[in-house]
């Protein structure tokens, strides 16, 4: 008869069973914060790339690309901070400046910044630069549809132009770090 | 979000309580070689067997949703790291629509039993896609050099009806065996079980990082595309239409399959019973309303290089960038193909060994009747099911007792991938010719089901016509 008792108790428990002390609504507070890193622009040029006969002019090379990946609903809703990190290694005996200019769809400049690279003869000099986009600046980044990079080389004080035999290189590596906050809002 | 919710409910198909419960005709569905001790039976339509179970290995609803003051995101974080790629979520449900059976053969003592029926079954089994979850949850920054395996995406689900007929033969006092043939009719199926590939961010040679994608993913579906398209005619409610459409597919949906069950019962000695069975050795051939979505390709991205068209590449940065975005689009754009496919059922095995003892003591003589049945049975039951990555097993110990002439009960203790504290209880009553039974696994968790990793319920009603005692 003990068996019956056990079974009756079990049945009572079964019939009165329920899901207790749980709160499914708390799932609405979900927040996840992944951090993504991705390579951006890079280049590697020898000194001979910047030849110019006079030795006194500013040599400018540049290019632009359509760059609208930040102009995206998911990123607009969930991205809270972006960092661009640049590392320029220079062993050409010249001063360089990299200008990065961002345009919106009306061709208006949304934002621009520059990185100046000083030489140390033909020794390698590593210059780094971090550009942080948050709040209003992040909104500007999200309006960007086109990005332009202009690399300018300033003449040396001696005025001697670079030629095919000039030594040194200028290299750039860069990456973007994207901080997300994905929540229910 | 959806994944998190799904993860709280899962199922398994183990039925240690019903297995070899010879009073209940539905035990023939687990082993067609189960001994039969009645002349004929008919299941009460729609009520003869209702089974539902859900399980999740490694996590319970309570772990994630406990109202205990701990921040939800902290509980989520713990859950994400507590699980690994071999954890799984499963939901299983069966509903018998019609069933019946009768004895035939030798007219003095029929030694064969034919049983048949139609039931509906749903089964979903999804592995925890560990690497994909970690990548989505943390991003790649903290995991430079880690190879994220997209093969962790592995799951399948099916909704089908099964029309079956089986024959159980009692060869002699020691041996019984049986077979059951099954015709499957699929209502819905999805299957994504052979995904391969990876994503890794490594140190780049020209830039900080090289991002390498190597993807070979496929999701096979049948019965799905037409349901989704129902939406478009905008007349009546989509749910209603979908249910109507699914009902049409209950029999002979066009995506049909065949299966076989086989099993035996053997008594090496009077009080000992050994049984074994295999269920659902079979497949469904999906050829109608089939859509397979694939993503396949390799791509390595290191950044945008050739600024300056004068550097000899002849390519502007914009062209270079366009090429990159095209490559990404090609990589992630899925292809839809409509090739037929074969989906194997998940085969199940059962085995048991049991010892019976203790005959009823007659009040008149304070002795036991020679031809009486034993009142107690103890034994072990092993269950296994083939899953896409590896089989899953469960071992149960059970004790069955005839409580009164009309009522028997069974207790089981089961160790499996869900828990090591699963105690189940079953009751079967015969009132007149009516049989009703009720079974529940993991009863100690019923006081708070949310804490359980696994829950399972079965119940049913049958009309059974017994063999008259001589």
Describe the protein's architecture and organization.
The complex is a heterodimer of chains A (185) and B (470). Chain A has a single domain, classed as Jelly Rolls (Sandwich), CATH 2.60.120. Helices cover 16% and strands 43% of the residues of chain A. Chain A has 3 helices and 11 strands. The longest helix of chain A is centred in the N-terminal third of the chain and has 15 residues. The N and C termini of chain A lie far apart (58 Å). Chain B has a single domain, classed as Porin. Chain B contains 7 helices and 23 strands. Chain B has a 21-stranded antiparallel β-sheet that branches. A two-stranded antiparallel sheet of chain B has the order 16-17. Chain B is elongated, with a radius of gyration of 27 Å. The N terminus of chain B is likely disordered. The interface between A and B is large, with 50 and 59 residues.
